[in-house]
Amino acid sequence: MKVTVDPIGCRAHGLCADLLPELVRLDEWGYPVVAPGEVPAELVTEARRAAAACPALALRLQR
């Protein structure tokens, strides 16, 4: 499973970085930068919560 961000849909709310700081950081404009690679098994639940909480629905999980 991977975390991705829709750069067009993202509105830079920053909630993803608050909920999933292990995999998401914010750039200088407040937009998310996702760590490359697979989501570690111990972070899958947190990644799902972060994707569900995104106000713009721009954070997604892909298999």
UniProtKB/TrEMBL annotation:
**Bilayer-crossing regions:** none
Organism superkingdom:
Bacteria
* Keyword vocabulary terms for this entry: 3Fe-4S, Electron transport, Iron, Iron-sulfur, Metal-binding, Transport
Q: Which InterPro entries match?
A: Fe-S_cluster_ET (IPR051269)
The Swiss-Prot or TrEMBL record lists the needed cofactor(s) as: [3Fe-4S] cluster
One Pfam family it belongs to: Fer4_15
- Protein name in the entry: Ferredoxin
